[in-house]
Fold this protein.
Amino acid sequence: MSTAEVTGQSYHVSGHLDGIKQKVPPNSVYQVILTTIVTLCITVTSGVCSKALSSSHPIFIEKNQSATKLAYISPIQQEALNQHKFVERINKKYPIQSLSYPTKGVAHVKMTRYINSKPVKINIVEIDKSANHLLNIQPQIAGEKLNSRAQIRTIAQKNNSIAAINAGYFKPQTGVPLGALMINNEILTGPIYNRVGIGIIDDNNQTRFVMDKVTMDITISSNKSILKADNINQPRMLSTYTIIYTPHWGKMSPMAPKYGKVAAVRNGRIIAMSANQIAIPQDGYVISAPAKILDKLALERNIQYDIKLPESFKGAKHIIGAGPYLVKNGEVFVDITAQKFGSITGRNPRSAIGYNENNELIIVTIDGREESSVGVTLTELAHIMKGLGCTYAMNFDGGGSSVMYVNGKVTNSPAQKDGISISNALTISEIQEESQT
């Protein structure tokens, strides 16, 4: 039933109400028609005004059955919103913990957990670059050359890092990284046993991460031949291997292998060859290989090498190899045997890195070998990383190397004060935004 109000009196339009037929008095028909016309005019006019208002002022929201048009949010406003959500999420995730925010988009958490009634001290740093576009996440080596080591504080201060964690494995005697390492699109070292690595990809001002086994297809070509190389800037494992050494390795190449030679290449030609060490040209490289390969290559020209990465690392700006896997596709996955990590099992100090489905990075250190913190096994570490929300996670170098740095100081408790000297680290810094002139 519809009701029309005219001059303070109420009339019922002809129809049925509870089975009773009612009629509008004849003298009120014109008033009902007039009221209906006025109502329709107001409705149409209101709709037109509303449409015009929402078109000229995008802050207003227009809803219909097919779509919803939202008010425009600037990148600065969106980043502030992301920071608010980040803090809200972290506060909810880590209630009643030692929690701090070194800068926007970075949270540091300290906690103690118990595994089989034994205490475990954990340091966690979570990074959300969507809350701070100035954050820079990248690996750093200890010195100008690969054969160097330094404490994490020294490495972190090179780029004024807010936070840092020790990263890949290295040869203790020299400091050379043992595994894949790429910094700023330049491959410094190749993989060992094709172990897992994490790639950092910057794409359209967005940072995302990828985790996969790192392989490198390395070829040396000339005007007459193409041959396969086995690695770059890594210690020799077999005398039959062909390995490339660049100036990042140091001033001198390693000794030639048994029945082998080393050859210095500059401008596409071999300029020197020896069965002993040889100087690495600053504008070239050295090939270490069986003698029969280099003797043939010495007669050729346009010598150059090329390295191809797996498709999964396409676009990666940085890569750090370590391992083993801890979490894969959201599930615990510890491939100790496949990646030849039998020597690092047991309960020890640990470092790990992972990321969640929103591309938020999570780095962790766990103290060990002390009464106040007994350390964890790789499987226990995997469950911790999954519990922190990681869809992918992998192990970093641990033991005495396990160290975390936040806001100018080491925040965990390594056996040696401030941690031992290490080869490389993952650092988080805040770049200086260019001033507007």
In short: Helices lie at 29-56, 75-93, 152-157, 291-297, 378-387. Residues 217-308 form one domain. The first strand starts at residue 3 and ends at 6. Confidence is low (pLDDT under 50) at residues 1-30, 32-67.
